[in-house]
Amino acid sequence: MKITATKDGPYLVPTGGRAAIDGEVIEKAQVALCRCGHSQNKPFCDGSHKAAGFEAPAATVELELG
Ligand code: FES
């Protein structure tokens, strides 16, 4: 699995088509999770990082899941 931390933005996490977050089923290929702390819809990104001026470098995390 590859998690992408976008430049100045959220973590993009692939779901394989479906994920459950705090019991809420999400049927999307990926979810965008807030890493700036300003979203009004945590854990999801709502775009607030732009107005907040959040800055962080891009990064990629690759996980081998057993
Ligand atoms: S990363 Fe987008 S609102 Fe926090």
From TrEMBL:
GO cellular component: cytoplasm
Keyword Metal-binding: yes
Domain of life: Bacteria
Pfam families, sorted: zf-CDGSH (PF09360)
Keyword Zinc-finger: no
UniProt keyword list: 2Fe-2S, Iron, Iron-sulfur, Metal-binding
SMART domains for this protein: ZnF_CDGSH (SM00704)
GO MF term (any one): 2 iron, 2 sulfur cluster binding
Domain Iron-binding zinc finger CDGSH type: 18-55
Protein name: Iron sulfur-containing domain, CDGSH-type
Species the sequence originates in: Oceanithermus profundus (strain DSM 14977 / NBRC 100410 / VKM B-2274 / 506)
